[in-house]
Amino acid sequence: MSKGNELKPRIGFFGRRNVGKSTMINFLTGQQIAIVSDTAGTTTDPVRKSMEIGGIGPVVLIDTAGIDDEGELGKMRVEKSMAALAEVDLALLLYTEGQYGEPEERVERWCSEHGTPMIKVLTKVAPIDKELLIAKIKQALPESAYRGRSLLGDVVQQGDTVVLVTPIDSSAPEGRMILPQVQVLRDLMDIHAQAFFCQPQELSSTMAALKEPPALVVTDSQAFKQVASCVHANVPLTSFSVVLARQKGLFKEYLEGTHKIGDLKDGDRVLLLESCTHNVTCEDIGRVKLPAALKKATGKNLQCEVIGGQSPLPKDLSQYALVIQCGGCVITAQQVKARLLPALEVGVPVSNYGLALAWCGGIFERATKIFQQ
Length: 373
Hints:
The protein is of the alpha/beta class and 373 residues long. The strands form 3 sheets. A 5-stranded mixed sheet has the order 2-3-1-4-5, sandwiched between helices. It has a 4-stranded parallel sheet with strand order 7-6-8-9, sandwiched between helices. Strands 11-10-12-13 form a 4-stranded parallel sheet, with helices on both faces. The protein has helices at residues 21-29, 71-84, 102-114, 130-140, 179-191, 203-209, 224-228, 240-248, 251-258, 285-298, 333-345, 353-360, 364-369, and strands at residues 10-15, 47-53, 57-63, 90-96, 118-123, 161-165, 194-198, 216-219, 237-239, 269-274, 303-308, 322-325, 350-352. Mean pLDDT is 88; it is low at 1-5. It has 3 domains: 5-145, Rossmann fold (3-Layer(aba) Sandwich), CATH 3.40.50.300; 161-243, Rossmann fold (3-Layer(aba) Sandwich); 250-365, Rossmann fold.
C-alpha cells in the first residue's frame, strides 16, 4: 500500500462557532495541536494537520470555521468550511443541546447527497467516551480512505516487463522524477514486475535490447506521438496521466468527455484544472502544450483557461464547453471527484490531460485499449 499523504484518511470537523471543534481535535490526538479559545470564531479558515490518532493511525485532520458565521466575511468563511466537505472521507458534525438547525442540516444534507459518511457528536453536555468515538470513526471510514487501488495490478503481472518513458525537459524537476512516475514505479515494484526507464530518444535502443516485447509501455503524455512511432502496434501503450486518471475514478466520464473535443467550436471556452502548483515554463503541459494541441487538432480558436492548485472554481461552469483535469497525483480521488462533479451536474463534459493529448495525437483508442478489455 502506498504511504503517500493522499492515502491518509481525511477527517473533517464541522459545526457552529465555539461548539468545540478544535477541542475535539486535541481530545482525539491527545495533543494541543489546535488553538482553543472561548472567543467564537477563533478558527477562521480550514486548517489541515497530519497527525496520528491512537487506534486509527496516520490521518489528516481538517479543522473548519463555524458554519453559522455572520456578515460578509463570515459568509466567506462558511463557504470555505462547506467546500472542505468535498475533500473529507468522514465528517464529524459537532452540535450542542438545543442547537441543531439549518446550519447542521445543511452539512447533513450535503453528506447525504454526496455519499460522505458523517458522525454526529453532541458536545458540552456529558464527557465523551474517547474509545467509543474512535471505534465509531474506524467503523465509518470507508476502506478507500486507507487503501489505494493498484495502478496497474489488473493489467500487469509478476515478472512482466514494463518500459517507462520519461522525457527530461525544462519542465522536469531538477534532480528527481515527477510524482506520477514515482507512483507507477512503486506500484510495479509491489507487483514484482520489471521496470525499465528511458528517455524518448533512447526508446528504440531500449526496446531492441529486450529479449521479448514488453507487456506495457507507459510514457509521459507529451511524448505520446513520438513514442507511438517507436512501439509496435501489438504492444500496449498508455501514459502516466491516463493510469492515474483511471485510479482516481470517473474514468468512464473521462472516456465519454474526451470524444467531445471533436465537437468544439470557435470561441468555446475550455477550463484546465491543475491540482499542483509549479514553476511555469515554455514547455508547460497545461498552460502551453495542451492548449496548443487542442487548437491544432480541432482547427478552432479556443479560449483555454487554467486554474492551479485548489483555487476555487468559477461559480458558473456552464459557460465552458469542456473541463480537463490533470492526473491528480497530489490530491485524493475524493478531491478529484469534488472538482469535476459540479461540471458534470450542469452537463459539461470532462476529460483528463493524458486522454486529451492522446486524442489530439490520434492515438486515443490505443492509449485506452488496455483498460477497456
